[in-house]
Amino acid sequence: MKIGIDNIGFYTSNLFLDMAKLAKKRNEDPNKYLIGIGQEKMAVIPKTQDIVTLGANAASQIVTDDLMDEIDLVIVGTESGMDNSKSAAAYIANLLGLKNSIRTFEIKQACYGATAGLQMAKDYIQIHPDKKALVIGADIAKYGLKTKGEPTQGGGAVAMLVSANPKLLAFDGDSTYYAEDVMDFWRPLGYSEAKVDGKFSTNVYLDFLSHVYADYQDTYGAKLTDFASFAFHLPYTKQGLKAIKFLIQNEPEEVQASYLNKFEASRKYNKIVGNLYTGSLYLSLLSLLENADFLKENDKIGLYSYGSGAQGEFFAMKLVEGFQSVLTGKTKNLLAKREEISVEEYEKIYQSTLNYRDNEVFDVTEDHARYVLAKIDDTKRIYIKQF
Ligand code: COA
């Protein structure tokens, strides 16, 4: 029995910042952000969106009425949790109108959370093939204004429906993983911005890739050309460029050129959204699927997941027959319809999201998303469905 991803939904806010304009304000050469870091636009998440609304808005792209009775597991991977106790999954299941005979919980391991959820959902469907699981990676990447990490911010959510006989991608059954206690990126309780040892974290990312990829090659006798293409965790897209260059380093020149060319499709969306932590790998996967013209049925895609702290995993998924029918172009439309804001507006929104006052009521008239955060009522977050 094949198990895999039946459908993928994505959501980010309708606001973005132009990276060249941010570079100028920060007295940097725009090419440092555009080429050196590999980011062209950055999603700016307003106060009316958090991981619950981002996750629910992403999930609403794929959760149709006929799935209401079949989904009985909702897992949210996030490192932007807004409650130390209640999970975002509990809110999201309710907002989507899912049934109550369901399991809902949240997972944390930096940017690895959605992969942990996906692997857990795969195992669950293996023994409950008549059920479906909803796995969401939702985050808002925050390093602080005028920090080195600032151009690698962003936010959004990816929602994946995991099922037997999937319409999009099937797990290949192969996976290798590696963990170590490393201080490359962390966010202590009470802090709204991440702490990061930037250069070190980019090296640990590559070091873990070398561990899991070598292990994968040894364990499964795999070679690079078994893969039609790759998708990587992309905290910023230059990191993925370093990853693909690492994988292809011993290949002939024409093979290297071909994989470098294919990599461009996998970073197209991430370049104009920025970092969404747990969801980044899966936005890269969606970007590859929606923008590559070379993919065909049974092609194998290699996925590298990395979460600081740190956990790495390399696994493969295969495109199933008719996969093109699932790719509706909704993401392309969503990204094309966004509105540019100035650096000043971005800074204002940024500052406003650092603190949420108790009994604060939010102006939702400018936020046209289906799900929005409307107010904080005696410390309780109140969400509404707008349409
Ligand atoms: N034109 C083209 N490239 C340029 C450039 C220009 N004018 N100016 C600089 N660059 C290149 C640099 O050579 C460098 O490339 P390299 O990484 O291949 O060496 C890159 O741009 C970044 O420049 P650098 O001076 O190293 O930037 P920085 O000190 O501001 O830090 C990060 C960059 C990525 C380390 C920082 O943004 C950060 O900490 N981000 C968060 C890290 C993160 O996401 N970690 C999680 C990993 S999972």
TrEMBL record:
Domain Hydroxymethylglutaryl-coenzyme A synthase N-terminal per the UniProt entry, residue ranges: 2-164
A Gene Ontology molecular function term of the record: hydroxymethylglutaryl-CoA synthase activity
Keywords, in A-Z order: Transferase
UniProt superkingdom: Bacteria
Taxonomic source organism: Ligilactobacillus hayakitensis DSM 18933 = JCM 14209
Residue sites binding (3S)-3-hydroxy-3-methylglutaryl-CoA per the record: 29, 143, 242, 275
GO BP of this protein: acetyl-CoA metabolic process
Transferase listed as a keyword: yes
Active site annotation, chain numbering: 79 (proton donor/acceptor), 111 (acyl-thioester intermediate), 233 (proton donor/acceptor)
Residues covered by the Hydroxymethylglutaryl-coenzyme A synthase C-terminal domain: 175-251, 259-378
CDD domains: init_cond_enzymes (cd00827)
Protein name: Hydroxymethylglutaryl-coa synthase
Entry annotated with the keyword NAD: no
Family affiliation: Belongs to the thiolase-like superfamily. HMG-CoA synthase family.
